[in-house]
Known about the structure:
The structure holds 2 protein chains of 2 kinds. Chain A is mainly β.
Amino acid sequence: DTAVSQTPKYLVTQMGNDKSIKCEQNLGHDTMYWYKQDSKKFLKIMFSYNNKELIINETVPNRFSPKSPDKAHLNLHINSLELGDSAVYFCASSLMRGLGLGYEQFFGPGTRLTVL
Amino acid sequence: AQTVTQSQPEMSVQEAETVTLSCTYDTSESDYYLFWYKQPPSRQMILVIRQEAYKQQNATENRFSVNFQKAAKSFSLKISDSQLGDAAMYFCAYRSGYGGATNKLIFGTGTLLAVQP
């Protein structure tokens, strides 16, 4: 029944490692997003894909690489993790256009990444 | 660029009372949407209420209502009959109505609401 799911929910790793976070949605949406919530709770868009095409790429270090194998999945790979990458990463999905609820972005439960 | 400002980092309300959370935004666009999201300690982001800019009528969802002042670019959230379960961080968010690369949520810094029994 889960609409937007993320794995893992918690990730603890050492500096310099490479890690991935996976996201899947079963809502039939065509657009998916990654948001980052920092230690002060501030939320900011990182990336967005529409039908597997990258449409939003905010100022994010190129150590972060999103990949969308299909409309229902969006993964985030992070190379050479740094202390400052510690945050909660949220995946979200929506329809690009539509009326009513179609415009709402549905969020996953978040992945808390801790870099030691 | 669009910005969203929440000037109240923390608010407190007594159970069963009413509280209003403030939000102002800046944009030159005419087509946009405004949202209030709730984030309880579980960290799940939950949509509380949505307002389309072209609608003059203020949105209402049960105990939650907004005061949308388009000319003043103000979008406040009123919570009536506050309940303990309303305790959470509340985020005001803006989204352009033009789709494509503008289809992102721009968040305010949040207001942490405490509900006192």
